[in-house]
Amino acid sequence: MGGGTLVGADPLQFSGLKTFDPPPDSLYGRTLDAVTFRGKYVLLGLGGPRIAVHLSQGGRVDVEDPPRSSKPKFGVVRFRFADRPSVLVKEFGTERKAGWWVLAEGDEGPMSVLGPQPGSPGFDELIRTSDDNRRIHTVLRDQRTVSGLGRGYTDDILHRARVSPFASLRSLDAAKRDELLEATRAVLADGLEAERARTGGLPTKIGDHWVVHNRYGEPCPECGDDLRRVSYESHEVTYCPRCQTGGKILADRRMSRLVR
Ligand SMILES: [Zn+2]
Known about the structure:
By secondary structure, the protein is α+β, with helices and mostly antiparallel strands. The protein contains 6 helices and 10 strands; from the N terminus they run ββββββββααααββαα. The chain is elongated and about 60 Å long. The termini are far apart. The structure holds zinc ion. The site of zinc ion has 7 residues, from α5.
């Protein structure tokens, strides 16, 4: 898409556009000079101003070649470029959380609150030096502390590093912190490789390459013991007791309520 001239940014859904100034049409005629990311935001660089897109849970991107003009049922926004394919952002499901932002040059918008992302010196520094006392699973998913990671990668990273999801950063020694950095690098590299091997775009449900995430009850790929979970309202944390907690079963409020 690089080098294309933006000729349209068409809202297809009432709540998708999160900014009102500058208006999208103020960017028409500008050249797409970079597609990058910050945390979970995809950034379209337009020679100073940028468009940020957050796909949330159900957001997907279609490259439309040739460009289309239909109004798809689940569309969020369509970016049109002169003599290039169009880019359609759409969203499955009913949560309506995917969004986009038009940002003036230098405006970080929603990214101004983000913590460092894996792969950056800031992330390495944070993991090596932080005395954060919260659960590590929470820390890695808190976008203001660490940006870019979600539940799936967090489960897999902690399993690979053999760290309990309930451990705190403060409790980890230097060697364990290095293992956590290495596990983060390796899990994200594997994930990227798996995603790049896909053909035909993202399926409705992604995450088919997770090692432990969402695999509660299956054998741990490392030791063969059953994977366990801790359930919350909206998600669950999957872990291996033998590999990560010294055999300890972590308290699962939902399970103990059922048992009672
Ligand atoms: Zn295991």
